[in-house]
Design goal:
Layout lengths: L16 H8 L7 H16 L8 H24 L14
Helix pairs in contact: 2-3
Length: 93
């Protein structure tokens, strides 16, 4: 197998309890397109039977959160004044 065709190796990163708390409180910016892609991925995986019955509740909850974020972002873009650049439309805290 050539060097280019080898699969990439993933490594597990472990965090201590304090690091996990800090990560959970960290605010990040994610593009709506990425959130939409993740929601679409969940939908495709579900249709192909990739999730076990016991996992569906958590998967469904995540899917709802993602689709709600997409819908909220769409509303904010529609409600923004025409003179407001899209970059300035931010989620209210």
């Amino acid at each position: 197998m050539s060097e280019e065709s080898k699969p990439t190796e993933s490594k597990t990163v472990e965090f201590n309890e304090e690091e996990v708390k800090q990560l959970l409180e960290t605010t990040v910016t994610v593009k709506i397109a990425l959130i939409r892609q993740v929601a679409n991925l969940i939908d495709v995986c579900q249709k192909r039977g990739a999730f076990q019955s016991s996992e569906l509740e958590g998967v469904g909850a995540l899917f709802r959160v993602l689709t709600e974020a997409i819908n909220e972002a769409g509303k904010k873009v529609k409600e923004a004044p025409a003179t407001t650049p899209l970059e300035t439309v931010k989620e209210e805290e």
